Amino acid sequence: GYRARSAYKLQQLDETANLLHRGASVVDLGAAPGGWLQVAAEEVGPEGTVVGVDLQRIKSLDAENVETIRGDMTDEDTKSKLLDLVGEDGADVVISDMAPNMTGEYSLDHARSVYLARQAFEVAMDVLDAGGDLVVKVFDGQDLQDLKDDIDPEFQYVREVRPQASRKQSSELYLVAKGRITAPVSVGD
Ligand code: SAM
C-alpha cells in the first residue's frame, strides 16, 4: 500500500502526461509522507534515482533508489543541498506537491501556493536537463496565469491537469510542463 492517497494523483498525472520512465532521475518537492516517492521509485526502477525534499521528516523507504533531504525549499541552503545530491547529470523530471498550511483565507492560501510553485520552477531551471518535465501543484486563483506564462517559454508546452483523485471541491491543479527547451547553464561554464 501507499503512504498517502496522493500516490494515485501522481499515477494519474503519469498516465496523462507520460512522466516517469525506467532509469530516470526524479526530484520530488514536498515529498512527505512519501506516497509520490513510492510511485516514482517503482516507475524509475533500480537504475533510476529519486530525491525527495520536505520540511517534515520522511520515514525511510525500502527502495534503495530513494534519498531524502529534510529542509525548507524556500531556503537557499536546502536548494544547494539538493543540487549537490542531484549532481552534474541533472534531473529528467521535477515534481512538486508542495502545499502551504491552509489558513482558510482563500487569497492568502492561493498566494502562498503560487510562491511555493515558483520555488519549484526555480529549482527545475537549475536541475532539469533539456527535454525534462516539470509538474507542479498550485491552487487556482488570480496569479495562476502569470505563473503559467512564466513557465511556458521554457518548455514545449504547459497545461493544467486536474487529476480525478484530487477532491472534487478542491481548487488544486497541477501545471504540467513538458520538454524543457534548453539545458541548465552552470556557473563557471
Ligand atoms: N506528495 C506527498 C505524498 O505523496 O506523500 C504529499 C505532499 S503534501 C500534499 C505537501 C507537503 O509539502 C507537506 O508535507 C509539506 O510539509 C510540504 N511543504 C510545504 N512547504 C514546504 C517547503 N517550503 N519546503 C519543503 N516542503 C514543503
From TrEMBL:
Main location: cytoplasm
Binding site for S-adenosyl-L-methionine: G34, W36, D54, D72, D97
Cellular component terms (Gene Ontology): cytoplasm
Enzyme's top EC category: transferase
E.C. number: 2.1.1.166
Domain of life: Archaea
Enzymatic reactions: uridine(2552) in 23S rRNA + S-adenosyl-L-methionine = 2'-O-methyluridine(2552) in 23S rRNA + S-adenosyl-L-homocysteine + H(+)
Active site residues according to the UniProt entry: K137 (proton acceptor)
Listed GO MF terms: rRNA (uridine-2'-O-)-methyltransferase activity
Keywords on record: Cytoplasm, Methyltransferase, rRNA processing, S-adenosyl-L-methionine, Transferase
Compartments where found: Cytoplasm
Function: Specifically methylates the uridine in position 2552 of 23S rRNA at the 2'-O position of the ribose in the fully assembled 50S ribosomal subunit.
Protein family per UniProt: Belongs to the class I-like SAM-binding methyltransferase superfamily. RNA methyltransferase RlmE family.
Descriptive protein name: Ribosomal RNA large subunit methyltransferase E
Biological source species: Haloprofundus marisrubri
Lineage: Archaea, Methanobacteriati, Methanobacteriota, Stenosarchaea group, Halobacteria
Span of the entire protein shown here: 15 to 203 of 258
